Recover the amino acids of this structure.
């Protein structure tokens, strides 16, 4: 097991212990995301992934709160197939992380605006060519993904909340590689993702 994952395994029980405290709210989070990798020679949010985990919501005042999440997130990129050209090659990258977003939330009427940093630890990575997986050779991906996260949340009742979120890597997740096209920039590869999540609060008011 990646030794970088050990601290996160100790954090997970505290999520559910904190949820029992009346000043905290905790629960589960899951959903889908579409992502791309800037600098890989592809363009477009064509990679479908998923996210699942747990969270703790910490109120500071009537309008401000904090949210800490811990979850598994599947990101990457993909060159989709072409129905008009079934023989066209498909390829892309797969980057899977254990992530911890540390978010501030500001309440505006029924909506909550959220923003903050996220730290991800790489669990696995691969290069996929025509559905066959290969190890990513040098330069190897970074073991961490430092991102900025921003989004909006809307309650769907007493225990469910829908969240639309955008995340963007702030530092390269892999050094620049010449992929045979003219890149917009050669600063490396960066994850970008749009997340559609459902938060389920454990317990009742």
């Amino acid at each position: 097991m990646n030794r970088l994952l050990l601290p996160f395994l100790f954090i997970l029980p505290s999520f559910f212990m904190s949820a029992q405290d009346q000043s905290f709210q905790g629960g589960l989070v899951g959903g889908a995301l579409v992502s791309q990798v800037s600098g890989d020679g592809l363009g477009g949010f064509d990679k479908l992934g998923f996210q699942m985990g747990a969270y703790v919501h910490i109120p500071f005042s009537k309008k401000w709160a904090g949210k800490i999440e811990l979850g598994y997130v599947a990101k990457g990129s993909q060159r989709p197939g072409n129905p008009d050209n079934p023989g066209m090659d498909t390829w892309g990258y797969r980057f899977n992380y254990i992530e911890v977003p540390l978010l501030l939330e500001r309440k505006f009427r029924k909506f909550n605006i959220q923003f903050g940093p996220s730290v991800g630890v790489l669990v696995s990575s691969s290069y996929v060519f025509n559905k066959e997986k290969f190890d990513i050779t040098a330069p190897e991906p970074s073991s961490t993904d430092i991102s900025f996260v921003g989004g909006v949340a809307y309650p769907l009742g007493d225990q469910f909340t829908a969240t639309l979120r955008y995340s963007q890597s702030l530092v390269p997740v892999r050094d620049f590689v010449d992929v045979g096209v003219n890149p917009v920039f050669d600063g490396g590869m960066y994850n970008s993702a749009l997340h559609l999540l459902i938060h389920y609060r454990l317990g009742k008011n």
Observations:
- The chain has a mean pLDDT of 84.
